[in-house]
Design a protein that fits this description.
The complex is a heterodimer of chains A (469) and B (385). With 469 residues, chain A is an alpha+beta fold. Chain A has helices at residues 18-22, 42-53, 79-86, 104-117, 189-212, 229-238, 262-273, 308-314, 322-328, 346-356; strands at residues 3-10, 14-17, 32-35, 64-69, 94-99, 123-130, 147-154, 160-169, 175-176, 185-186, 221-224, 279-285, 288-296, 317-318, 360-364, 370-371, 387-391, 397-405, 415-422, 425-431, 444-453, 460-467. In chain A, the strands form five sheets. A nine-stranded mixed sheet of chain A has the order 5-4-6-7-1-8-13-12-11, with helices on both faces. Chain A has a five-stranded antiparallel sheet with strand order 20-19-18-21-22. Chain A has a three-stranded mixed sheet with strand order 3-2-14. The mean pLDDT of chain B is 96. Classes of the chains: A alpha+beta (469), B alpha/beta (385).
């Protein structure tokens, strides 16, 4: 049976209280949304989710990567190839991007399931990340959030099988974003909900249940996309599901509508709580709708080491002001424009990919010293060209030193610069998602793939450290 | 290798230094001419075009290279070379000159160190990142990386650094050519805005424009220029791995200083630096850089700097006065000029021409630069015959 063999999620550390947008008073536990830090984007969220998904899994067993997003930075240049390189996957990995629709994530899931079913791949990683923006202080802004989620699709050790699918395609002008426009737009909400969301979801659910001879009561959970909390609950009721017992919490007021990752993120949360034998109904909406029957198997019990959704919901820090959020999104002009400068040398990037994208270090075959960056002659025993690669991105390091640099032009000063020791190699890296108060010598850190700057107008990725949590 | 090969073979017979500062109204040519012509006058050189046989220049940010010096001084049709070696650039240019003279090839050589960073339109070094791996290039960010572990290991802190800033601010008020002439207090230093922890504003050197020059000759010829010439007793350069990448680095010292000092002490035959050196100019791009230099140069035991700071060992009235002209902190830091400026101060001290900041009976002086990540260090010892 084909299905989900592993899953992972990533919700950014930062939360923007919705009160900060309106300028109202913040309240403890009040509604908020998850927002990408200034060094995160759709692709880095997806990579982080993939790292969570791949804990304990041999990365060389992965045959394909599908990257789904509506907000990925490049119009031409594949995200999945960057994801594959950042994860240090095999060279002969199938890569493809899926985009342009809120259903991009479930489209990618469906494609992965079909390719495993067809026998063209044994194990396909689906990574989904979205950081959609609405215009500052627009009605839509408070509704949107940022997140990533990842699923490994295969046919052995399946934790949750996908036993049936159904799909409806539709053409309607409900939400859209054109090239060059940073903001998502929407037609009037009652029209969008009634003729887009409700109509398509009802059609796809009815079609699937009829085809499979299933009824709402057969499902432990309904995992449903929702444009807003009210329509989400109302539609579940209309579909004859119990909104309290059966409807998976969509995390409105906590994460927000995270686009292509939204329904898939809820699926990850549902799988965290699922028991063997549970049936889940996943329904996503966008330019039509799709639905999946997912049957949870016994091996779900083995899936315990990941962080998934619950861990990330607890790990949070508040972004102090709305202005800072606007600065992070480069919606407010600042002295240090992160897009300034000539950008990377493509030839240098080409030579340094193994070290800078895959974060590989070198281990000396003669003296075992691990060293970074790329060397020809060993730092310790001076052996020449006697190195094996060792991946640092999934290791825990420790701070050898740090400083708080107020001079470095960070969007959120001070910039925390560290020398991090990983397996004996020394890396000069920034720290991110950290409160300066927690930074101390020998602090254990993990590595996270981030956007270092946008010099040349493109995102330029590398790794930073963050306190191991 | 013969470490004593150059000991006392080369004499300094003239030196010059322009006023360091934000010299908005001067171009590099103006400063080079001021420094070189002061050195000519000091050495009694009246026809430099005839007398100067070779020129060694040092600049970290030259706009044209060797031509900037040759064009300014109209020294053509002879060797003119330029050295770049981070903040040790000036010391290294001087070193090339010393070897050129010691080899017997040239009788009279001019060394010029200069830099004009204030033409770049930023208050400090420019912050630019080209790749993804380098962090924004702020020297304060690099030099502060030893702070946390040094403080943690030896119990020193920001107050110890502040005392160094107070000392150098005081010394700078006594040097006519220094950039800053203002006394500060420990509280001023501690309360200033943080640039890169633990460095506040007063822990950071004043980046400035400037030029300094030296005329050197073989010892046998020195008497022909002046009686109170000063000898080069040892000069060395050492380069270490980037401390942020070096797997063996312990964050308690700067390795290049230890290595360069070892070379130069062997050249000069010095075994007890605190006793045998009478005055020292050490690199204080940041106050902690000076603190580490006390230990890495062997002026005191590793970890004991804070006691010596408290007891005043390195003040003008102390056992071994350091940065008698205010150091980089207040004299200014035009990168390529700094090493030559330090030799200028030691030269004046040994000749007894340091006015209000004069150290009594000083006959041996040391200068020290460290720069880059830091990786490069230059040390020079000069002495009266």
């Amino acid at each position: 049976m084909v299905g989900i063999t592993s899953f992972g999620a990533y919700i950014p550390y930062l939360r923007l209280p919705l009160a900060a947008i309106s300028g109202g008073k913040r309240t403890e536990g009040g509604p908020e949304k998850a927002v990408a830090n200034y060094d995160e984007d759709a692709l880095t969220l997806a990579v982080a989710a993939a790292i969570d998904c791949l804990r304990g899994i041999d990365r060389k067993t992965i045959d394909g990567v599908l990257f789904a997003s509506t907000s990925y930075a490049f119009k031409e240049k594949q995200g999945a190839a960057i994801v594959a390189k950042a994860l240090d996957l095999r060279r002969d990995v199938l890569t493809a991007d899926v985009g342009d629709s809120l259903r991009a994530g479930t489209n990618a899931l469906r494609a992965a399931i079909d390719s495993v079913k067809a026998g063209s791949a044994k194990s396909v990683l689906v990574v989904i990340g979205d950081t959609r923006m609405a215009a500052p202080r627009s009605a839509l802004e408070g509704n949107l959030g940022d997140a990533g989620v990842a699923f490994l699709i295969g046919d052995t050790d399946v934790a949750a099988s996908v036993t049936a699918t159904h799909v409806v395609a539709d053409e309607i002008i409900d939400v859209w974003r054109t090239e060059g426009d940073p903001f998502v737009h929407s037609w009037e909400d009652r029209f969008v909900v009634d003729h887009g969301y409700r109509a398509n979801v009802k059609e796809v659910v009815a079609g699937l249940l009829k085809k499979q001879g299933l009824e709402p009561k057969d499902f432990a959970k309904l995992v449903l996309f929702g444009p807003d909390k009210r329509s989400h609950g109302a539609l579940a009721r209309e579909l004859k599901f119990d909104p309290t017992a059966q409807l998976q919490d969509a995390l409105f007021g906590q994460v927000g509508n995270c686009g292509a990752a939204f329904a898939p993120l809820q699926l990850a949360a549902a799988l965290e709580d699922a028991k063997a034998g549970d049936k889940l109904l996943l329904v996503n909406y966008g330019d039509g709708a799709d639905a999946f029957v997912i049957e949870v198997g016994a091996s779900i019990e083995k899936q315990s080491s990941r962080r998934a959704v619950r861990w990330h919901l607890k790990r949070r820090g508040e972004i102090p002001t709305y202005d800072m959020y606007l600065r992070f999104r480069q919606l407010l002009a600042t002295e240090h424009d992160r897009r300034a400068g000539a950008g990377l040398s493509a030839t240098k990037h080409f030579r340094d990919r193994d070290y800078e994208v895959s974060l590989l270090a070198q281990k000396c075959r003669k003296c075992s010293q691990v060293q970074y960056p790329h060397q020809r002659v060993c730092f310790s025993c001076y052996a020449k060209d006697e190195f094996d690669h060792v991946r640092l991105s999934d290791q825990i390091g420790a701070l050898k030193s740090f400083t708080f640099d107020n001079f470095a032009g960070s969007p959120n000063p001070p910039l925390v610069a560290t020398v991090t020791d990983i397996l004996g190699a020394r890396l000069y890296v920034q720290m991110t998602d950290a409160n300066p108060k927690e930074v101390k010598l020998d602090l254990p850190v993990e590595m996270t793939f981030r956007k270092i700057h946008d010099a040349g107008g493109t995102p330029n990725y590398y790794w930073k450290c963050t306190p191991a949590r | 290798m013969n470490p004593e090969a150059i000991r006392d073979k080369v004499a300094i017979v003239g030196m010059g230094c322009c006023k360091f500062g934000e010299n908005w109204d001067k171009d590099p040519q103006d400063m080079i001419v001021e420094a070189a012509y002061e050195a000519y006058a000091d050495a009694g050189i009246e026809n430099p075009q005839k007398q100067i046989e070779a020129v060694f220049c040092g600049a970290q940010y030259p706009s044209k290279g060797t031509a900037e010096v040759a064009d300014a001084l109209k020294l053509y049709d002879r060797p003119v070379s330029m050295v770049v070696n981070y903040c040790a650039t000036g010391t290294d240019a001087f070193r090339y000159g010393v070897f050129a003279v010691a080899s017997g090839m040239y009788d009279t050589v001019l060394v010029v160190g200069f830099d004009k960073p204030k033409d770049r339109g930023v208050s400090g070094p420019s912050v630019a990142v080209t790749g993804v791996r380098g962090l924004p290039a702020t020297p304060a960010g690099w030099f502060s990386h030893v702070a946390a572990r040094y403080f943690d290991t030896f119990g020193a802190g920001r107050e110890d650094l502040a005392r160094i800033a107070v000392k150098n601010h005081h010394n700078g008020t006594l040097a006519p050519k220094s950039m800053l002439k203002r006394e500060i207090t420990v509280e001023d230093a501690l309360n200033a805005r943080v640039i890169s922890w633990p460095f506040g504003l007063y822990d950071c050197a004043a980046q400035s424009d400037g030029a300094a020059a030296a005329i050197i000759t073989r010892r046998e010829l020195a008497k022909g220029y002046r009686d109170d010439f000063v000898l080069v007793r040892g000069i060395g350069i050492s380069l270490s791995a980037d401390p942020k990448e070096d797997p063996s680095f312990d964050f308690l010292r700067w390795k290049p200083t230890e290595a360069a000092a070892k070379q130069v002490y062997a050249q000069a035959g010095i075994t007890n630096p605190r006793k045998e050196i009478h005055v020292a100019q050490v690199h204080d791009c940041f106050t902690l850089t000076e603190l580490l230099a006390y230990e890495d140069l062997g002026f005191c035991e590793k970890g004991s700097a804070k006691e010596h700071i408290k007891s005043g060992t390195f003040e003008l009235t102390g056992e071994l006065p350091v940065n008698t002209d205010g150091g980089l902190k207040t004299f200014g830091h035009p990168t390529g000029a700094t090493g030559v400026r330090m030799i200028y101060e030691n030269y004046k001290q040994l000749q007894g021409k340091a006015d209000k900041r004069q150290i009594k009976n000083a006959t041996v002086g040391l200068s020290h630069n460290i720069g880059g990540a830091p990786q490069a260090c230059g040390v020079c010892i000069v002495a009266m015959p």
